[in-house]
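CO-FOLDING WORKSHEET

Operator: S.A.
Ligand of interest: 2-oxoglutaric acid
Run index: 346
Mode: holo prediction, single chain
Checklist:
[x] sequence pasted
[x] SMILES validated
[ ] output reviewed
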Amino acid sequence: MMQDPEKVTVPLFTAVDREVFLREIYQMRIPAVLRGVSLGPCLDKWTVDYLREKGGDREVKVHVSPVPQMDFLHKNFLYRTLPFDVFVQRAAETKHSDFFISEEESYYLRSLGDDPRREPADLRKQFPGLAEDFSIPQFFEPEQFFSCVFRISSCGLQLWTHYDVMDNLLAQVSGRKRVVLYSPRDAQHLYLSGDKSEVLDIDSPDLERYPEFVKARRYECVLEPGDLLFIPALWFHNTLALQFGVGVNVFWRHLRAESYDKKDIYGNKDPVAAARAMQVLERALQALEELPPDYRDFYGRRMVLRIQSCAYSSEPEVAVQGCSPIKTLAASNSETSVPGSLSHPD
Ligand SMILES: O=C(O)CCC(=O)C(=O)O
Ligand SMILES: [Fe+2]
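OUTPUT RECEIVED:
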């Protein structure tokens, strides 16, 4: 059976050690599901009762949403503070006797550092008792470590499509989770607002509003308890908890430490050179405003051409193993048949 060229299953690796990871996955900058990597006793131990008892009543700031699909455009969710043990209970149940919005509200925790404005999250500091049960896979150099974040979601919770600037190993400890990813090369089809895609309903998008979205190639996987998902920096991801789920993600620097914004605590601020380039672009666009529309159009087009020839990679997108042949796909598309010339951003 032919696989739909715009839908790709994220490759699954079952016997990955550090060498295989570095050679076949990390270097290639492709997402991959790693099954069978030891994550420690958390896999058996982290029941709701155990999490409540060991995690204790330390306060956590959580997202509370009346519907499971969180919407950053209309900000349909609230931030509320709860003791960790109360939060875990609420996230695990489907109907609440105590609630903020409604009996059926959904919860999501993305844990923060002790001083949330200054330091990145580290499970070992905020939840030392639970962190003992989780072993961080040693696939990266220790100095690449950036943060270690608890991710706990109600059944059905969907987090909007976004990218982070760090490499990520997302460990699913309990519950199944669907993850849909898009390549950074498809950014022009995703209707970005900063680091997020405005296309919230990725399963039945409003194509009158977002006609380009169909051109984005969808990579998909379902994480089972014990799975690790490697999400390379800049790859877009959208998560949907198919059950109440507990995960831990570890962000790692891909570039040298100096390349990143020192004030970044979430792992999502653009690298300093990229942020500078984007600022300069804004200035350039302001300068174009001084021109009449037809001149602005002409010089705008020239700028696009310059960016395409100078900044776009001449390397074809790496084919993801066992999936539709991405190179062939590009070659069969007349607009993208010349190596190095990507289709114009329309
Ligand atoms: O697991 C989730 O719900 C979100 C994960 C995520 O966005 C991340 O690990 O960067
Ligand atoms: Fe993320």
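REVIEW:
Residues 151, 153, 159, 164, 168, 170, 237, 239, 247, 249 surround 2-oxoglutaric acid (ligand 1) (CB under 6 Å).
DSSP finds nine helices and 16 strands in the chain.
[x] output reviewed
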